[in-house]
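Worked example

This section walks through a single chain of length 147. The input is the sequence exactly as stored; nothing has been trimmed or padded.
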Amino acid sequence: MNDTLQIFKENIFEKELSKTETYWIDQIEFKIEDHDLIICVNSEFVKSSIEKKVFQKILDVVNKTSELNDCVFVLDPNKKSIDSFTPENTEHKEEEINISNEEDSVLEVDMSVFDNLLVGSSNNLAVTAAKNVVQNPGTRFNPLFIH
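Given that input, the structure is written out below as tokens.
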């Protein structure tokens, strides 16, 4: 079943997804139980947004993945979002930027600075945008203003 989940994830990200669709798919925890794809979300808002924005693309991939029969939503209000705050991440970590000395310098950024943020439904989009700026400076949001 783990292979089926991996195949599904590879196929969903091979589809042409907009930034918004990618954002909503990142809110999902996918599982496979009894040959069904389980879509775990933490709120009714996320569920309805996924149904409106990306559910058809998810269904297309489910139909193409021969080992999956159906797609089922599971609403778990206790489930924290993927980027959520956890107590073990509360210790202070210094931000590190390492630059390799190769001819083609590659900027490696320590993303652990985001571990100290309390992420909820009100600021999840801003945190996701900030992570995109750090990972790919100057490509997605240039400049990024958060008010």
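What to look for: The radius of gyration is 18 Å.
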